[in-house]
Amino acid sequence: MNNSDLNNLKQRLRQFAEERDWEQFHSPKNLSMALSAEVAEIIEHFQWLTEEQSNTLPKDKLKEVETELADTFIYLIRLADKLNIDLFEAVNKKIKQNEIKYPADKVWGSAKKYTEY
Amino acid sequence: MNNSDLNNLKQRLRQFAEERDWEQFHSPKNLSMALSAEVAEIIEHFQWLTEEQSNTLPKDKLKEVETELADTFIYLIRLADKLNIDLFEAVNKKIKQNEIKYPADKVWGSAKKYTEY
Amino acid sequence: MNNSDLNNLKQRLRQFAEERDWEQFHSPKNLSMALSAEVAEIIEHFQWLTEEQSNTLPKDKLKEVETELADTFIYLIRLADKLNIDLFEAVNKKIKQNEIKYPADKVWGSAKKYTEY
Amino acid sequence: MNNSDLNNLKQRLRQFAEERDWEQFHSPKNLSMALSAEVAEIIEHFQWLTEEQSNTLPKDKLKEVETELADTFIYLIRLADKLNIDLFEAVNKKIKQNEIKYPADKVWGSAKKYTEY
Predict the structure, then answer these.
(1) Could you read off the pLDDT of D41-79 as tens digits, one per residue?
(2) Are residues B42 and B68 in contact, defined by beta-carbon separation less than 8 angstroms?
(3) Chain A CB contacts of C23 below 8 Å
(4) Is C48 close to A30, i.e. CB distance below 8 A?
(5) Is A87 helix (H, G, I), strand (E, B) or coil?
(6) Quick check: C112 pLDDT over 90?
(7) Closest Cβ–Cβ partner in A32, A48, A111 for D48
């Protein structure tokens, strides 16, 4: 997906909300809650599985998780739209910061937060 | 459909994890937890604000929220990658389903779930 | 300090899990995920409501939210049990710390974090 | 903790909020968000650990997790208070329902949801 496809999705989701007079519910506050609820639907699929089992989901489970990832992405796009945040730009900035915070040679194999170094 | 920038991000994030020997921590189970933790960082910014205040964040707050959206998107991309799920495709499927579940004329102005109709 | 009803609940929930051979799933890691999923069920009830509406829930909604609070408390008790943490003691310690971090005269009417003072 | 100790905590937390003029922020909607943010702080401690490691936390980590459990319990008590829900009563009701939904002989050793039987 390039930025114009993400923009297309953004427009489609805006239109979807406008056609249903749902914009009134889409404050950033509310959207952050909806986003949180969708991510928890993903968590629910994995909570009793081992890490290994989570790597090898059966087909029907995978289809359900795909739907929750879609819902999560939908609310993330809506939230970024409302806050006028460019998701690609934000991620690029963050990756650069992470490359500095977590130099490969220093953090190799360790999951500690950078503040613990 | 041009998926190249999202694929670029996906590759960069894979490489970032490999360079640091972090793949060992990136089971879908763990990634769903990390995703959940990042979304909660967004929630924290809005929990004591009114919906109106969430619409008009000061510049410095907006910058912080931008970082959390980036972290959220990063873990979403990693999780989709591990599960071999195409985010763009998943969202397109979901929007179509939603257009059927929530016909505009039926749900106009109401936030009820479709099961409540 | 009388801790007996919380201890009763703790014992009942242990027994419930043992009778079903569910202890194998109840690592603290897994229980934190289950706790997170239940809290999100609460969030779902409030995400499209205004703060005012959340103060005046209709009877049927209130019954549903009561169930999610129960589920949340159940997993919190299980998690504390597994980590050998005394919830009552933990809260008492935290309230004392909060009384120092947030002196009433200093924070009156403001939702800022203590680091922002 | 018996119900009068839980009531004591409830009163203390009410007073704590009133002394700071924080009641204005404590709608159930907002409290559900704060509760969600605290649970995510627990998740953060476990996300890169294996289930086994989560069973054997070092002393300093355990102390940190104890604090997050305290914060979680605090917001749960506040939320129940605002909704006039009795947490002990709610849990007792739920345990009874669970005993019916999940008969020990039927679900022994399986983490499936009751709808999957």
Answers:
(1) 999 999 999 999 999 999 999 999 999 999 999 999 999
(2) yes
(3) none
(4) yes
(5) helix
(6) no
(7) A111
